[in-house]
Design a protein that fits this description.
This protein has about 260 residues and is of the alpha/beta class. The protein has 2 domains: about 200 residues, 2-enoyl-CoA Hydratase, Chain A, domain 1; about 50 residues. It is about 50% helix and about 15% strand. It contains 10 helices and 10 strands. The strands form 2 sheets. A 6-stranded mixed beta sheet has the order 1-2-3-5-7-10, sandwiched between helices. The protein has a 4-stranded mixed beta sheet with strand order 4-6-8-9. Helix 1 links the parallel strand 2 and strand 3. Helix 3 packs across helix 4 and helix 8 runs antiparallel to helix 9. The longest helix is centred in the middle third of the chain and has 19 residues. The model has no long low-confidence stretch (mean pLDDT about 95).
């Protein structure tokens, strides 16, 4: 059995809750929980271990403290960029966040403060986002004469629509929690004090779902985004077929029919 807590470092704390729910906390509070290259490598190793294990059933990603979920890429890593370094930086970060997006388990971003730049891209790579009432979201790369480079130009428009995404990226202006909720960027807003408990409650509810069905839903959605409607429907049908006749599916249908027979409805 994988010892996920072994992936804990100075910059990343990995905890196991309720035996199968993982909490990964970016632990660079003094630096706005910024994402350095070594931290990206640590996240990549964790995501690889989760993908290879059947022990984890849900993942929560959050940041240390209440100031920042993640203020984005470590600014010191953006010095002396040229074409080749910029390309390598972008493709590496994209690969790490793709690992997160492709995990076969539910993933929740518990946004405990600012999620700017790469921090917002980290949250967007999760399946579900909830946030504290004081959280703010932005892509400020335009103010540094650059472009969101870790998947933000692709995931944000799919999440909130191209018009709103274009406005956020071209202006760099932050939006608050209520606006993020209105946009559909987050699905719930809570107090800072209850954020982790809310994320844990959601993770517990999702963790009991059949993982084959969870993975099928995620695959069908991502395939549709990347390959279009026809490819998405093909993936959807394949996912239905893969779930059909499994022990979980048969038991769920049997239990549902039994409850219907014994109810007054």
């Amino acid at each position: 059995m994988t010892n996920f807590t072994a992936f804990t470092t100075d910059d990343l704390i990995v905890e196991v809750e309720k035996s199968d729910i993982l909490v990964a906390t970016i632990n660079r509070g003094r630096r706005g929980n910024s994402l350095s290259r070594p931290l990206l490598e640590q996240l990549s190793s964790l995501f690889q271990a989760i993908a290879a294990s059947s022990a984890a059933r849900a993942l929560i990603v959050t940041g240390d403290g209440e100031r920042a979920f993640s203020a984005g890429a470590d600014i010191h890593g953006l010095e002396d960029l040229d074409y080749v370094r910029g390309l390598n930086l972008a493709t590496h970060g994209q690969g790490v966040f793709d690992q997160l997006a492709q995990l076969p388990i539910p993933t929740i971003a518990a946004v405990n403060g600012v999620a700017f730049g790469g921090g917002l891209e980290l949250a967007l790579a999760c399946d579900i986002r909830i946030c504290a009432a004081h959280a703010r979201f932005a892509f400020p790369e335009i103010t540094l004469a650059n472009v969101p480079g870790w998947g933000g130009t692709q995931r944000l428009p799919r999440t909130i629509g191209s018009g709103r995404a274009m406005h956020m990226m071209l202006t760099g202006t932050p939006i608050g929690a209520d606006e993020a909720l209105d946009y559909g960027l987050v699905s719930a807003v809570t107090s800072a004090e209850t954020l982790r408990a809310e994320a844990m409650s959601m993770a517990r509810a999702l963790s009991v779902r059949a993982l084959r069905a969870v993975a099928g839903i995620k695959t069908a959605i991502s395939t549709g985004h990347e390959g279009g409607h026809s490819a998405g429907q093909h993936a959807e049908a394949a996912a239905v077929a893969a779930c059909s006749g499994t022990l979980e599916q048969v038991e769920a249908v049997t239990n549902f029919l039994h409850k219907k027979k014994t109810s007054n409805i």
